[in-house]
């Protein structure tokens, strides 16, 4: 009996404490929800938390998986975000091609068996994949600038050819295109329903993987588009420099940068030991193995969950991969510190940035051509642009990376235009060198367009040092 009374008393006390706690929460006398760092969930500054918590120290496998960009859940993005009184005027999209088969093979090993045909019910899956294949099969008579008209419009080999886009690469860009469609067409009505050919600007290098990536993104963006309205221009240079590719000083910066890379590799005894071990496994000289760029093939194995190759002498393994990938990460870190790559980037990225602001300037004048521009390119295209913009903390371009320039008009002040820069869905506008301090002086969530114009027309040359005030002089500067 005594035990029962004590039990009832404890139960009553527990109920009373629960009631008091709920009452205090109701009247906001104690916090209802607190983040791990002690900040209220409603007041946290981070808008787009990473879906996976980043490791406290650099993890080469984690970095490699980010690079793979394996399609999974729908991506959250910050594209198209602006106050209601801003009108979207034009959008300029730079992409790296999607996941591809390696460009190099590890000597004396079997190539990874990746199927480059497109199968609708095979992972990675996309609801528009089957329709994409059907639509591409109708585009054989499409009018593309030579030599693009000789390239296949989608990957179709049972065993991938070297550098060929995979199904993963197609799905990555179908997702990109669908995401941009939901934001720029459905929400902001960037293009009218009866859009015309001159409202698109499409350009790609002469590789099948860049053309096919551009078409996949375009199909996600404009499903079942009219082939008669589509024209891809061919860009011979990976820098998209058109008629401004001759630049001796840029090449000198590149030579110095390559020398820096070489010296860093020489200092890494663990890297040389790893290359030596791998060379013994495949029975080739270490120099030959290194020249075969084994990390390219190993990344394909990792991204597609295929075992690393083996021979009778042993197996290439994850420890080998970690050492080489860690060196890549260290190389990127030193590259930012030494600034030689920045010099190369400022000159390498200037032509394409100059073209872009030219299109933006025409849009600010009310012209309705080229409202949506798409450049389908490579890592060696995006990386210099990111560096030139001052985005030093940006990760190396992953498969299907996207860099977007948005041009906006203030409806309340129609003569004022602003830009936003987004990298893989993250707003990096105020991380750029031309606008990193603007938000301290202005409450507007974007950057004045004239800041970008001034950067491209003048400040890029100032950053190089010397007295050059234009691209030609900077490229031919004496005494560099």
TrEMBL record:
Statement: the UniProt record of this protein carries the keyword Transmembrane helix: yes
Molecular function per GO: phosphatase activity
Primary localization class, coarse: Golgi
Coiled coil: none
Gene Ontology terms: cellular component: Golgi membrane
Subcellular location: Golgi apparatus membrane
Transmembrane segments: none
Keywords in alphabetical order: Glycoprotein, Golgi apparatus, Hydrolase, Membrane, Signal-anchor, Transmembrane, Transmembrane helix
Listed GO biological process terms: chondroitin sulfate proteoglycan biosynthetic process; glycosaminoglycan biosynthetic process
Entries under Pfam families matching the protein: His_Phos_2 (PF00328)
Reaction equations catalysed: 3-O-[beta-D-GlcA-(1->3)-beta-D-Gal-(1->3)-beta-D-Gal-(1->4)-beta-D-2-O-P-Xyl]-L-seryl-[protein] + H2O = 3-O-(beta-D-GlcA-(1->3)-beta-D-Gal-(1->3)-beta-D-Gal-(1->4)-beta-D-Xyl)-L-seryl-[protein] + phosphate
Topology with respect to the bilayer: Single-pass type II membrane protein
Tagged with keyword Magnesium: no
Job of this protein: Responsible for the 2-O-dephosphorylation of xylose in the glycosaminoglycan-protein linkage region of proteoglycans thereby regulating the amount of mature glycosaminoglycan (GAG) chains. Sulfated glycosaminoglycans (GAGs), including heparan sulfate and chondroitin sulfate, are synthesized on the so-called common GAG-protein linkage region (GlcUAbeta1-3Galbeta1-3Galbeta1-4Xylbeta1-O-Ser) of core proteins, which is formed by the stepwise addition of monosaccharide residues by the respective specific glycosyltransferases.
The family this protein is said to belong to: Belongs to the histidine acid phosphatase family.
Oligomeric form and interacting partners: Interacts with B3GAT3; the interaction increases the 2-phosphoxylose phosphatase activity of PXYLP1 during completion of linkage region formation in a B3GAT3-mediated manner.
Protein name: 2-phosphoxylose phosphatase 1
Gene behind this protein: PXYLP1
């Amino acid at each position: 009996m005594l035990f029962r009374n004590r039990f009832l008393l404890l139960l009553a006390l527990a109920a009373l404490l629960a009631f008091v706690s709920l009452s205090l929460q109701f009247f906001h006398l104690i916090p209802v929800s607190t983040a791990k760092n002690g900040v209220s969930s409603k007041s946290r500054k981070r808008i787009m938390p990473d879906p996976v918590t980043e490791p406290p120290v650099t993890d080469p496998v984690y970095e490699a998986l980010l690079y793979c960009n394996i399609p999974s859940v729908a991506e959250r993005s910050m594209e198209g975000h602006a106050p209601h009184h801003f009108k979207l005027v034009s959008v300029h999209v730079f992409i790296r091609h999607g996941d591809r088969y390696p460009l190099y093979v590890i000597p004396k090993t079997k190539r990874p068996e990746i199927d480059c045909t497109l199968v609708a019910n095979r992972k990675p899956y996309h609801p528009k994949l089957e329709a994409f294949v059907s639509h591409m099969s109708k585009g054989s008579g499409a009018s593309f600038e030579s030599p693009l008209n000789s390239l296949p419009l989608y990957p179709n080999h049972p065993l991938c050819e070297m550098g060929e886009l995979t199904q993963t690469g197609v799905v990555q860009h179908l997702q990109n295109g669908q995401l941009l469609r939901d934001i720029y067409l459905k929400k902001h009505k960037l293009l009218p329903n009866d859009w015309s050919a001159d409202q698109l600007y499409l350009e790609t290098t002469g590789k099948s993987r860049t053309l096919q990536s551009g078409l996949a993104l375009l199909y996600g963006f404009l499903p079942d588009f009219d082939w008669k309205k589509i024209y891809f221009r061919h860009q011979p240079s990976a820098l998209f420099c058109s008629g401004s590719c001759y630049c001796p000083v840029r090449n000198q910066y590149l030579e110095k940068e390559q020398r820096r890379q070489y010296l860093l590799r020489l200092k890494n005894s663990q890297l040389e030991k790893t290359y030596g071990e791998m060379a013994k496994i495949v029975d080739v000289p270490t120099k030959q193995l290194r020249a075969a760029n084994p990390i390219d093939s190993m990344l394909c194995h990792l991204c597609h969950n295929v075992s690393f190759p083996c021979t009778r002498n042993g197996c290439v393994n994850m420890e080998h991969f970690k050492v080489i990938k860690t060196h890549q990460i260290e190389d990127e870190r030193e590259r930012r510190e030494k600034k030689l790559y920045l010099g190369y980037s400022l000159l390498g990225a200037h032509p394409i940035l100059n073209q872009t602001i030219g299109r933006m300037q025409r849009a600010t004048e009310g012209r309705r051509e080229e409202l949506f521009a798409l450049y389908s390119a490579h890592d060696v295209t995006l990386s210099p642009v990111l560096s030139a913009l001052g985005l030093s903390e940006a990760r190396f371009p992953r498969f299907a990376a996207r860099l977007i320039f948005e041009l906006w008009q203030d409806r309340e002040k129609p003569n004022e235009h602003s830009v936003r820069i987004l990298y893989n869905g993250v707003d990096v506008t105020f991380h750029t060198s031309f606008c990193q301090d603007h938000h301290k002086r202005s409450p507007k969530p974007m950057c004045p367009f004239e800041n970008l114009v001034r950067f491209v027309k003048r400040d890029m040359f100032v950053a190089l040092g010397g007295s050059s005030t234009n691209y030609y002089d900077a490229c031919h500067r004496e005494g560099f």
